[in-house]
Design a protein that fits this description.
446 residues; four-stranded antiparallel beta sheet; two-stranded parallel sheet; 11% strand
Length: 446
């Protein structure tokens, strides 16, 4: 029995298109890439913690700023004695005294502390900046991870389409073999060959269905979206622009957030060295005090006594003691931070360059996969025509069908791999289209 395979493929393509269209219209639980990223950005605990660290750093900044202002302190106390403090002295007119009180208020200000206050405020600002960079890193990392999980789901969905097409093809071939066997034109083993291949396809179909559910669960847990096995990713593999035409590849290490963090670490280390050196310098402070004391029931009270004072603290032993060693340690930490920056700069340069070459290779992989699929489809057509004409055996046809199915799967994998490599390249080059922590906070409060 001969069939027009080309007409069958056209009908199959139309059937699949209609099936996808009907499914897309019937399904309400769809997920787009933008929807997944937006949900992940709003749900991520890492981003929430990043924002909390910024708040904490701002509080530390305000804490350091408070050192510029005077310190105010009030003191009050009273003492009552069961026996008299002072027995009455009638000749002098002094009554018995069994209680006293004291009230005072003090305001003091550090005039000079070796630059410790100023550098502490600078260090607090550096910490705020570093935590803002980390918060931006968290946002970029969430986008990167979401895209990886999303394209994994899309890849599995596309592989399901490939398997469905293969199942339909083998089902049609099985019908043909049954007709030929009934007519006595083939041996039963040929029918069994098709059944075995179709059983393998059904097993693959079952595995892919479970893998898709697992990938959907993984995406749902990461983004905070509702988990529904009927949900599907609506974005599919699209026409891809060559990377050389889409991007002007440059390596700007200074824009990399890891590099910026290392640079902030150097600034922080230098400030910590200056603060350690301040412990070896004199500290000058001034202040005023007002106090009043007396008794409650005798009427022996003093007037408010104001006074001003100045203090100079000279840490003499700090010039050879532990403070000197602390300064030495801080200088060593400063050199370590500089070396880490140089090391990090090289690693970042290699990482960006590698991600660019990975992107170029991923694009070439798509081209090769397209060519392989074209060859595999042409080979399948030829083998089917030859089989229908009695020029080759069933095994050759089944091998051609398997190669065509593998070629389709490789193309799907190549597209998904390119999407991930592109995101990694943008991530490492600080070119992701990501909101700032402030913009994300505004979105959450809308």
């Amino acid at each position: 029995m001969k069939t027009n395979f080309s007409n069958y493929i056209k009908k199959l393509g139309i059937f699949l298109i209609l099936t996808v269209a009907i499914t897309a219209n019937a399904q309400e639980n769809y997920i787009t890439l933008e929807k997944a990223k937006k949900a992940a950005l709003q749900y991520s605990h890492d981003i929430k913690n990043g924002n909390l660290r910024i708040e904490k750093a701002n509080a530390q900044k305000q804490e350091a700023l408070a050192n510029y202002f005077p310190t105010l302190e009030a003191l009050g106390g009273t003492v009552y004695a069961f026996d008299n403090f002072i027995d009455p002295i009638a000749l002098l007119g002094i009554p018995e005294i069994d209680n006293v009180y004291l009230a005072s208020a003090t305001a003091s200000e550090v005039v000079f502390a070796g630059g410790k206050v100023r550098n502490a405020n600078k260090l607090a600002r550096v910490q705020v900046s570093a935590n803002q960079i980390r918060a931006e890193q968290s946002i970029d990392s969430v986008i990167l991870t979401t895209e990886k999980k999303y394209w994994q789901l899309v890849q599995l969905q596309e592989q399901q389409k490939v398997v469905n097409a293969a199942k339909l093809y083998l089902s049609e071939l099985l019908v043909q073999q049954e007709d030929l066997l009934e007519a006595g034109l083939i041996a039963k083993n040929q029918l069994l060959q098709v059944k075995v291949n179709r059983s393998k396809i059904l097993l693959t179909e079952s595995k892919l269905a479970n893998m898709r559910k697992l990938a959907l669960l993984d995406l749902a847990l990461y983004t905070g979206l509702d988990y529904d096995t009927t949900s599907f990713a609506i974005d599919t593999m699209h026409q891809i622009i060559p990377p050389e035409l889409k991007y002007q590849h440059t390596i700007n290490v200074a824009e990399n957030k890891n590099y910026q963090l290392l640079d902030e670490q150097i600034q922080a280390s230098k400030l910590q060295t200056k603060m350690a050196q301040a412990n070896q310098l004199p500290q000058i402070s001034v202040g005023v005090n007002a106090s009043k004391y007396g008794t409650f029931n005798v009427g022996l009270d003093s007037d408010i006594q104001p006074l001003a004072f100045g203090l100079v603290r000279i840490p003499i032993s700090a010039w050879w003691g532990k403070e000197k060693q602390q300064v030495k340690q801080r200088k060593i930490e400063e050199k370590i931070a500089i070396n880490q920056l140089k090391k990090g700069q090289d690693q970042i340069t290699v990482g960006i360059t590698k991600s660019w070459y990975d992107l170029l290779d991923a694009y070439k992989q798509i081209d090769y996969a397209k060519d392989n699929l074209a060859y595999a489809e042409e080979n399948l057509d030829v083998q089917r025509d030859n089989y229908n004409s009695g020029l080759n055996n069933l095994s050759d046809l089944l091998d051609a069908q398997r190669l065509q199915q593998e070629a389709q799967t490789e193309l799907v994998t190549a597209f998904a791999n390119y999407e991930v490599k592109e995101t990694v390249y943008l991530y490492r080059n600080n070119k992701l289209n990501a909101p700032s922590p402030e913009e994300l906070s505004e979105v959450k409060h809308e």
